Each structure stands twice: as C-alpha cells, then as structure tokens.
Amino acid sequence: MTGLAEQHDAGHVDPAPIAVQLWSLHREAARDLPSVLERVAEIGYVAVETYDLYGNAPAAIRAVVDGLGLRICSSHAPFPVGDRATAILDDYQELGVSTLAWSLEPEEFTSREAILRGAERINQASANAARRGMRIAYHNHFAEFRNAFDGEQAYDILLGALDPAVVVELDTYWVQTAGLEPGPVAAALGERLELIHIKDGPAQGMDDEMVPFGEGAVDLPRTVRANPAVRWNIVEMDRSRHDMYDLLRGCYDYLVGRGLAVGRRPVEGSATATKVRP
Prior knowledge:
Layout: E1 16-21, H1 26-43, E2 47-50, H2 58-67, E3 71-76, H3 85-95, E4 99-102, H4 112-130, E5 135-139, H5 143-146, E6 148-149, E7 152-153, H6 154-161, E8 167-171, H7 172-177, H8 182-188, E9 193-198, H9 220-225, E10 232-235, H10 244-257, E11 261-262
Parallel strand pairs: 1-2, 1-10, 1-11, 2-3, 3-4, 4-5, 5-8, 8-9, 9-10
Antiparallel strand pairs: 6-7
C-alpha cells in the first residue's frame, strides 16, 4: 500500500452494485428478519451484508434471500478463531457466504505490539476460513487512522502484517471521522479494497446520527468513484433520527440516480444501467 497522504484522482469507473449492511435495520431484523429482507429487495438493493441471523436457521435465511433475488455480498461475523471457530464457519458456510468481515477493538491500536498481536489473530482466522473456501475482510473504525507509532500509521502497520489473502472493507465514514479524506485512502488501497461502507453524517464520533446522503461531511461522489477495484458499495446507516427505511431508500436513489452504484430499481432521470457486473 502506498502512503495514505498521497493524493489520487480517479477517472471514469464503472459503478459497483449497491448493497445494504443489515445493522442499519437491526431492531427490525431482531423482530422479523425475512420481512426486512423483503423491504430491502423492494427498495432495489442488489445484496445485503448480514450482521446477525437473530435466531433464524442459516438455510432458512438463504432460502428467503434466494427467493427474493437478492445476494449476500458478505457477512459481519467474529473472526473464526478459538473455541467458536468451527461454529462460526459452519453457520456462514450454510448461509452461503464467501467473505466474513470483522474489526479489531480500539484498545488493540494503542501500541505496535498490540496491533501485531491482533494481526496474528486475523491471519489465523483467514487460514481457518480458507479451509472452507471462505475469506476474511478487515473492517476499520477510526483508531486505525488516528494512532501512529514511530511515524507509521496504525492502519499501515496492520495491513503490512496481514496475510495478503485478507481483503479490505473500508468504512469510509470512520476514515472521515479520523480527519482524513476517504477518497484518497480508498484509492491508495488498490486491488485489496473490495468492499466499502458508505454513510453520511457530521463525522464527529461513534455516536453520530446519520443523515441523508449529501447532507453530511463526506464527499460521497469522490469517495465512491475513488477505486475501481471496489466490488460492492454497501450502505450502512448506524443510527438516525430519520425513518430508517425512508433513509435507505433515499441513499439508494442518491447513489443509483447519480450513476455511483448499480441497483435493481431504476431511478427516474438516471442513465445508470441496472445490469450488475458478475
């Protein structure tokens, strides 16, 4: 990875398909996950990134997803290491997921040694997942970008210690919250960046209320266009004063309507094709 301070300008990039991280609807999903999936499909999202199965059998949720014509682009699940590794991998293999995304804790970025210990755990998770034909993606918050040791950013230390098989899911909002422009950071990650989380808000801290796209601090067009390697544009609205379904519909219309993502429902006035790249 090149230095994150390096500036990159991206030319035309074919838009990636749009997905939603189901944490956005975790309260609703805890009550009735199949109904949430139906509403997401109706909005036009191509895929979901699951967060939890809320007591549902993996095969049952897979059947609902398939029946709605949705995909599961990835799942947030704890790193499959230790005593729970087999159970985690069994569940997500049954769900049909190929990429599991998770994070280290903020306290694991308080020293270089702590970062390297965390990297060892991720690498073990990657090896365990690979035996099932699955992969691990690393999802950031903002300690990775705020902390540095001997002049080297914590995120660079982590990525340098991770097995190349570990791909990157960049949460662009937390990059902004750390005080960096997410577009150049995304561009600098090159082919390793496959998934991005997209949200908008004041970019002040973990308790931020998300706002409709275009009303917050993030330069969304530049961010989404920054890296052509991205395979999935994943909308995640952690919390908001707005109705979450209305907010997610507005996010869909913003990205698809501006040609920044591809969805299943055309947006009036948009020239974006609805054909999703394989």
